[in-house]
Amino acid sequence: MVPGIFPEKDSSSTDVGPISESVHSVKTTLKPICFGRIGLVGMLLALLVLPTAQAAGRWATLEAIHQLENPRNLTRPGANGEFGAYQFRASTWRRYTSVPFSRALERLESDRVAVAHYEWLRRGFERAGLTPTPYRIALAWNGGFEAAVSGRSPAVAHDYAQRAVNLAEELDRAARRRP
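RE: above sequence
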């Protein structure tokens, strides 16, 4: 783990911003729901479970994407010229940094670009009025942002997104088990 890149996992940090942001998003997401529809027990369950699921957020989602994209840290380009830990295309890499694309093999540089891309996707979903869940982030990462927003992502991208969520949830559980 790299301090500062994934601050929600940095044990030296006292900032609880991502957690409070996820709680806020849960409150705004649940506000329009009527108690009669899901019941008090359902509402309490949602308040207990959703903040935990959202708290995994960026770190777990990006690590899951890395494990799906390049689990063995291969140094050769992918079929479409993708490169590095997150298998970026050159155009995506250049959108966020002036660092040469060849440095996508360096995990620190890849992590920086991955965080920037994740945040761009997150803000895009928020602008579109959609909650930026780990599933949607992974769906857009694999199948493209416009397809994820418009509901036109291919089945293979949905499969990828579900695998990313499963991995992210397992990573989050493992992190919580550590002292």
